[in-house]
What we know:
The chain is mostly helical. It has helices at residues 2-38, 54-64, 75-91, 119-127, 130-140, 144-175, 180-186, 199-202, 204-217, 229-232, 242-267, 277-282, 288-314, 322-350; strands at residues 101-104, 107-110, 190-191, 195-196.
Amino acid sequence: MTLTILLVTLLKVLVLSFVVINVVPLMTWVERRGSAFIQGRIGPNRVGPLGLFQPIADGIKFIMKEDTYYPHVDKILFIIAPALALIPAILAFAAIPFGPQFTLWGYTTALQIADINIGVIYVLAIASLSIYGILLGGWASNNKYSFLGSVRSSAQMISYEVALGLSIVGLLMIYETTSLKDMVLAQSVPLWGVLPKWGIFTQPVAFLLFWICIFAETNRLPFDLPEGETELVAGYHTEYSGMKFALFFMSEYMAMFTGSALAATLFLGGWAFPPGIQEWILNFGLSRNLFAFICFINFMIKVAFFLWCFVWVRWTFPRFRYDQLMKLGWKFMIPVALLNILATGFVIYGA
């Protein structure tokens, strides 16, 4: 039995790693096609049907490009930094549930790598470690533009992590748990007999705060000040090339995927269907594994919606000035998050 548990867990890790890694080339294609659609252009259409093989061509290019090491860099830290930026985005996904229980080789387990009772805290803590890769990359490059980009990124992450953590407190008060699995189950019941008890309905203000903070945490437009090419060339990865640059590139898209998965779990019920629809599906007499697969597809559709929002926002809104970025974080996001916690407490106490 112990061997079966080990094999099933290993299979879940491999499948999840495959999904997370392959989101990167898929999102590069979506990014290009999406930007072309928004701006009235064609986008990639030469390499494969609809340009679908373009990410493969890009991957080959990154592998074949020479990795350059300039005399002024700290070589050891310069090499370590991209990996430190990439690994936390993968590790954070370990606690996110992406489906209900399924049975394999006589062993029943959930579609989740690790059911941690402090899953919310784990994901936020691990995801925040990616800043060390950015800081080391900027410092080790020994370049003023790279260093300024890494300093900007650290200040930005500290500012918006406060608001990010506070935005989730209201959810913890309502669902009374820090387990992501329990949060999904708590959202699968009706709210006022009409709506699902999703976080987006119970905590709409928290959702807006959380989603804005995710953009800032992943350094995406309009919060990509650490990479502001008009001021900092390319920011913290100015000196990087080849696969080391590709790792920084991958870490951004993996962080987007993890942030989207966390948003879907906290605010859209995760893998669970709205009440009524789930019972309707179960009436077809589906096997446990088939139902788990359908729930997994449901979860991925929700994640895909948030990933598309990243693309849509990037090609729609202009970049903030740095002073506007910091004022938004400290003078608006944090006070509103605190007021939301206060209002949630009054509502719970009044109920």
